[in-house]
Amino acid sequence: MSDIKRTPLTANEIADRFSDKFAGKISDISIRQWTEGAKSTPVNSVWITIERSILHDAVKEVISIDYPHFGVISAVDEVDFVELLYHMYVYFGCPGKGVEITLKVALPKEDLIIPTISDLIPGAVYSEREKRELMGVEVADIPDKRGLFLPDDFPKGIYPWRKDDAGIKEGMVKDLWAVGRPEDRPNPPVKPKPKKEAKSGGDETKNSAPKNDVWPPEKSDEENKAEIKPCELAEVKGE
């Protein structure tokens, strides 16, 4: 048995890997970098515009790099087409090593169909259901077609995120904040909170920090070694 330690790829290396594997199916790749937090931890991201036909394989490629932390599928109505953006993060939890990968796919309005990726990343099904319900994108082979937000009696063929004729119609409520609360609806009952009984004769310092000591207490070397750090999970055993 020998230890095999994963070496995280940089944003540039990930971009090169996609360019080599999907040449001709990618129309644009860009790399962006910024810093976060008091320590100015660098955050790198790769934005890849791909053809719809390679979405499934492109997600497989992301998984082959590192099983991603799936963020969300966002959607934008660009009038002539709908753009879907699949936001994922590899090396998630490794300070300074994480890379955000966003796959962008443009769908023509007359053919709003995209394959599901929930067979690869099960949690993506919720975001796919949202895109079906609010943007009108048909997700092929999605295992769950239930809606998420709209009531059962919401008009069919109306998608609240669309900017064209399939969007919210004149006369429908679009901005709930502008409607206000109905005046004829009574306020919901609020259950009063039980009063806390005053403590008497107890140890008032039971849950407080010990005086004249460091709090929280410093850990021993054995305790620090026993902690599992996210990046150390990347290490696997090989023959």
UniProtKB/TrEMBL annotation:
It comes from Methanochimaera problematica. This is NADH-quinone oxidoreductase subunit C. Gene3D superfamilies: NADH:ubiquinone oxidoreductase, 30kDa subunit. Pfam families: Complex1_30kDa. PANTHER family: FORMATE HYDROGENLYASE SUBUNIT 5-RELATED (PTHR43485:SF1), HYDROGENASE-4 COMPONENT G (PTHR43485). Residues 49-165 form the NADH:ubiquinone oxidoreductase 30kDa subunit domain. InterPro entries: ComplexI_49kDa-like (IPR052197), NADH_quin_OxRdtase_su_C/D-like (IPR037232), NADH_UbQ_OxRdtase_30kDa_su (IPR001268). Residues 195-206, 216-239 have a biased composition (Basic and acidic residues).
